[in-house]
Design goal:
single chain, 198 residues, alpha/beta, Rossmann fold, five-stranded parallel beta sheet
């Protein structure tokens, strides 16, 4: 029977790199971040209406969303952030459950679901195994500031909103460290997931 494996880890830890590698290997991966990105890139009228009402009219211009403005608002207003997270989580959950239901019987050994806030939202029970990617905070900071459109101030607030590495270690079945080169990381990942990557 196909195992459903959850992938998690803090922002900038290397989850995206791992998922890209798994996809290249031919494995089915549901990418929560990618799905959320698609919601923002091609927003429906319901989402635009929600943002105008619950975040700010300023974040929507000509049916396009200014994500930088959204980030700066929600990480300074907890109540607004929680409302937005609740809306997004509901949409992601629908997409994720549809993916799992559709692919559970593909006999590939494993299907993967990438959820950045898997532990924060207590979703472990939905997976046969939880894989966590860990990386030093300094490296994560460097990666995020280099590749994402976040300020250091917003990034620090994201770090505070996510669980600790100690908690991740306690609640995950497989830990993959990503503190060296990409080649080392992929080698460690393949070794850790050897049982499923057949």
């Amino acid at each position: 029977m196909t195992k459903v494996i959850g992938i998690t880890g803090g922002i900038g830890s290397g989850k995206t790199t791992l998922c890209k590698h798994l996809k290249k290997k031919g494995y089915l991966v549901h990418d929560s971040d990618k799905f959320v990105s698609s919601i923002y890139k091609k927003p429906n009228k319901r989402f635009l209406k929600f943002l105008k009402k619950n975040v700010s009219k300023e974040v929507v211009q000509k049916d396009k969303i200014n994500k930088i403005k959204v980030s700066s608002i929600i990480f300074n207003k907890d109540e607004v952030r929680k409302k937005l997270e609740k809306y997004i989580h509901k949409e992601v959950k629908i997409s994720r459950e549809s993916f799992i239901k559709k692919n559970r019987k593909n006999n590939k050994g494993a299907i993967f679901v990438d959820i950045p806030l898997l532990l924060e939202n207590n979703l472990e029970k939905n997976f046969d195994i939880v894989v966590c990617v860990l990386s030093k905070k300094k490296l994560r900071t460097e990666r995020v500031l280099k590749s994402k459109k976040f300020t250091k101030q917003i990034l620090n607030k994201i770090f505070k909103s996510q669980t600790s590495d100690r908690d991740r270690r306690l609640r995950s079945q497989i830990i993959i460290n990503n503190n060296k080169t990409k080649k080392d990381f992929i080698f460690s990942a393949e070794r850790a997931l050897m049982e499923f990557l057949r």
